[in-house]
TrEMBL record:
<protein>
    <recommendedName>
        <fullName>F-BAR domain-containing protein</fullName>
    </recommendedName>
</protein>
<dbReference type="GO" id="GO:0015929">
    <property type="term" value="F:hexosaminidase activity"/>
</dbReference>
<dbReference type="InterPro" id="IPR038901">
    <property type="entry name" value="HEXDC-like"/>
</dbReference>
<dbReference type="InterPro" id="IPR017853">
    <property type="entry name" value="GH"/>
</dbReference>
<dbReference type="InterPro" id="IPR027267">
    <property type="entry name" value="AH/BAR_dom_sf"/>
</dbReference>
<feature type="domain" description="F-BAR">
    <location>
        <begin position="568"/>
        <end position="848"/>
    </location>
</feature>
<keyword id="KW-0175">Coiled coil</keyword>
<dbReference type="InterPro" id="IPR031160">
    <property type="entry name" value="F_BAR_dom"/>
</dbReference>
């Protein structure tokens, strides 16, 4: 028995051993197969690329770009990073400049601690510098102070960062040339983009600008003078005096700017954008480009995710290597994709840096010369007149990822990165550094907002697809699904308001109110307007419970007739969109008509401001047109063949007409000061906001609700008592009918008769009890009704006073407008009449006729031909 048992144990152990051997063999095979498969996949990945349409290299900031690629993944191809390449971060302050005391110290500290070879900051100030003298009234009203510029430089120095001021000196001077006092400096009269290089005064102006800038940056050893996207036309009259083609004039201007900068600060290095000198007209004229040799350092910018061959193999790179000691690169970490962008596209910008690394490696192999540094540009507007795009905190992910790929050659799967802490962990950095990033909550806030807006866009698209205007017009829609989506839209609207309220608080931590207002007007107000318009448009169909036969022709005329009221009607229209019409004020929720009136008053104030601002723009445009017309007309008269008193009278009459422009400017100022500014002040004082609500209106609503709450509770009790009384009455009625039937039924037993009779007595008692309760509640209501109505009317009277005050302000506004445009006792009108009289008085017809005759006509000496004999000297010829 023991032997048998041992044999069984042996057999089982052998089977286990055999199973282990087979398992081990399978594991070895699978491992080999896995390595072989991985090798194939990696080989395939080496040839994988993102499908991106090549876009013209010189197209940035002059046209919108659209990418057709899927940005869900980042290129996995191995590429060598540039850890020792000097990196500079560009801050574009012409859009959303951060408040200095809340941004620079903490941001510079973060960049310093990031330890990714960032050597400095290129700051494009535009109109933000605290300039004085001739520029005092040209700069930003809420620009930086000198103490702010000192704060920036102190913070940079403490974190070993160099400040490079970027001052445009040729193109992109819109901030200055847009103003009337600097019109004469424009290359083209109608366009404030480019300053003319044909006026000596231009260089006096630019020297003043550069002198003040460098005075405020005493430690800067590098300056960027811009000069990109210069569309020079040579149309200024002074340009006709010296014949010179556009490329030559461009080079001449740059040389004069370099001379001015070197005079102010000898030895300073000067950077210049390279897009103009990279064009064919310079590539084909190397001799002309040679005039800039060692005077400047070109900055080659390209913001695309892939570089086309014409860029990569351009002969300009060989020319740069011969002419310039240093050539810089410029990529983009934000603002390089779309004019209107709420959130930075990180993938696009990381691909741009990947392309730069590839190009730098190829360029080094070809020219044996590498780029000296790279500027990571962060644009806030495409130009001075373009909308605000990509707030800096939304670009933190792009900036960090771009620095990371430049340094290491590695990229990050951004789909799995939700915040700064995850991002820092993924690149092997201390996530606690995120705490020093200013405005970090703006990053997460706008990310949440973007998600909400995407959901809202889906609902709006759906609603307008399943219920287009025709269906809504004829009240012909499918209710259930529509109600569901409209309810979702209302909830999403509330979520949006909550998110924006929180975001408004976060934005105020970094930006001034004018930036926040612009950003909300660009990215929030339009979608809220679409939501509100949709809810109003769809409100009639939400109550639809029956539908007409097709075709729905008569419905249109029915709606129109319901909406038309006599012209004398001044109360809210009796229309489908007005839920307050035809009900008593003290009925439940009818107080909202008064609230609606107060909110409507606020909207009317906004509307009046908007309308009269438009009027100001019209008048300003008219004035500008008159000034331009006057200047052009006088030039034409001077260049014509007219002369004498006629020419003088003609010119002075033109100048007299130009006084209309000054008259318009006076009217504009009066409307601005006495109409718009007063209405703005009134609105701000009377309609104080708590972001989402008007405080005074909210107070009225709160008081109405407080008074109506016990009344609504009483009404609910009355309705319940009424229903119980009616229900008991119906049961009593049925019981009495049963009793009458039983009385006539001879087969009914006494027990059944008694049971029915008891039931009647029971229901009579119940009905009487319910009647008594119902009656008492009604008496209670009648007793409370006068007090309730009085309290409601008291609050209503307060809203009347509130509205009366607004209407009085409107009357003052109408009077101020009349006074602003009145010509009675107007000095300009009198001056214009005097000028006309003076011009007409100068006109002397006889004097001009006499002048002509004296110099060209009857009084001139005519050389008549005379007979000339042959002189003796002629015989010898």
């Amino acid at each position: 028995m023991r032997t048998l048992f041992n044999r069984l144990i042996f057999i089982r152990m052998r089977r286990v051993f055999e199973l282990l051997v087979v398992s081990l063999f399978l594991i070895i095979i699978l491992t080999i197969n896995s390595k072989w498969s991985s090798s194939i996949i990696n080989d395939n990945n080496k040839h994988r690329h993102i499908n991106i349409n090549n876009i013209s290299v010189n197209s940035f900031l002059s046209q919108d770009q659209s990418l057709n690629q899927n940005h869900d993944t980042i290129i996995e191809k191995i590429i060598t990073g540039q850890p020792n390449l000097a990196k500079y971060i560009h801050l574009d302050l012409k859009g959303a400049p951060p408040q200095p005391n809340k941004f620079y110290e903490t941001f510079f500290n973060f960049i310093d601690q990031l330890n990714m070879s960032v050597k400095g900051i290129v700051i494009e100030y535009e109109d933000l510098l605290p300039l004085n003298g001739r520029f005092a009234n040209a700069t930003h009203r809420f620009g930086y102070k000198k103490s702010d510029i000192e704060l920036i430089q102190t913070a940079a120095k403490s974190h070993r960062l160099e400040i490079i001021p970027l001052i445009q000196t040729f193109g992109h001077l819109e901030w200055l040339l847009k103003l009337r006092e600097f019109e004469l400096y424009r290359d083209e009269l109608a366009s404030p983009m480019v300053i003319t290089p044909c006026l000596d005064l231009t260089y006096v102006l630019l020297e003043d600008l550069l002198q003040q800038t460098l005075d405020m940056h005493p430690n800067s050893n590098i300056i960027h003078i811009g000069c990109d996207e210069v569309t020079l036309t040579n149309s200024h009259p002074k340009c006709q005096e010296i014949s010179m083609d556009v490329p030559e004039r461009y080079i001449n201007h740059v040389k004069r700017i370099v001379s001015i900068v070197q005079k102010i600060r000898p030895g300073i290095r000067i950077l210049i954008w390279d897009d103009v000198i990279r064009s064919e007209q310079f590539i084909n004229n190397e001799k002309l480009l040679n005039e800039l040799k060692n005077l400047v350092e070109p900055v080659a910018w390209n913001y695309h995710p892939t570089f086309d061959d014409s860029y990569i193999y351009s002969p300009i790179w060989n020319i740069y290597s011969k002419l310039f000691s240093n050539t810089w690169a410029a990529s983009a970490f934000k603002g390089g994709l779309s004019r209107l962008s709420m959130q930075t596209n990180t993938t696009h910008h990381v691909l741009n840096h990947h392309a730069w690394l590839q190009f730098m490696k190829l360029s080094t192999n070809q020219n044996n010369k590498s780029f000296s540094a790279i500027i990571l540009t962060g644009w806030s507007r495409f130009d001075h007149f373009m909308p605000l795009c990509d707030l800096l905190p939304t670009a933190y992910q792009s900036l960090i990822s771009s620095l990371y790929i430049l340094t290491t050659g590695k990229s990050i799967l951004h789909d799995y990165v939700n915040d700064c802490y995850e991002l820092m962990n993924s690149i092997g950095k201390d996530s606690q550094l995120c705490q020093s990033l200013p405005g970090l909550s703006i990053w997460s806030g706008i990310s949440s907002l973007s998600l909400s807006l995407s959901q809202i866009e889906d609902r709006l698209t759906f609603l307008h697809t399943v219920a287009p205007s025709y269906n809504r017009k004829h009240l012909f829609v499918r209710r259930y699904e529509l109600d569901l989506r409209l309810n979702e839209l209302e909830m999403l609207k509330n979520d949006l308001l909550t998110v924006t309220q929180l975001l408004n608080h976060h934005l105020s931590e970094l930006y001034s109110l004018d930036v926040i207002d612009e950003w909300f007007d660009l990215y929030i107000t339009p979608i809220l307007g679409r939501i509100n318009a949709t809810l109003i448009e769809f409100s009639p169909v939400r109550n639809q419970t029956s539908w007409s036969r097709r075709p729905s022709i008569s419905i249109k005329s029915k709606i129109i007739m319901q909406c038309i009221l006599p012209q004398s009607q001044t109360t809210p229209e009796k229309c489908l969109s007005n839920p307050w019409h035809g009900k008593g004020f003290c009925e439940p929720n009818q107080y909202k008509s008064a609230i609606d009136r107060c909110e409507g008053g606020h909207k009317s104030c906004d509307l009046s401001i908007e309308i009269y601002k438009e009027l100001v723009k019209v008048l300003e445009h008219c004035s500008e047109s008159l000034h331009q017309w006057s200047l052009t007309s006088q030039r034409k008269i001077v260049q014509s063949k007219e002369f004498g008193t006629t020419r003088a009278a003609w010119i002075e009459s033109i100048q007299a007409v130009e006084k209309l422009a000054e008259r318009n400017e006076d009217i504009t100022k009066n409307i601005q000061h006495h109409v718009i500014d007063k209405m703005v002040a009134y609105k701000n004082s009377k309609y104080e906001r708590s972001f989402l609500h008007l405080k005074k209106v909210k107070e009225f609503e709160k008081d109405f609700k407080k008074v109506q709450k016990p009344w609504l509770e009483l009404l609910n009790k009355i309705n319940e008592a009424k229903q119980e009384f009616h229900h008991a009455s119906r049961k009593l009625h049925h019981a009495k009918r049963a009793e009458n039937v039983i009385k006539t039924d001879l087969g009914t037993t006494d027990e059944q008769k008694k049971k029915v009779k008891d039931s009647v007595h029971h229901y009579e008692s119940e009905t009487e009890t319910c009647r008594s309760t119902y009656s008492k509640l009604m008496e209670d209501m009648k007793a409370k009704q006068p007090g309730y109505q009085e309290e409601m009317f008291k609050i209503l009277s307060r809203t009347d006073d509130f509205e009366r005050d607004r209407l009085n302000q409107f009357k003052l506004m109408f009077n101020a407008l009349q006074e602003a445009i009145s010509i009675e006792n107007d000095a300009r009108h009198t001056e214009m009449s005097d000028l006309f009289n003076k011009a007409i008085g100068k006109h002397n017809i006889n004097s001009d006729i006499e002048y002509f005759n004296k110099h060209y006509g009857r009084e001139t000496k005519t050389k008549w031909p005379v007979f000339e004999d042959v002189h003796e000297s002629c015989h010898s010829l």
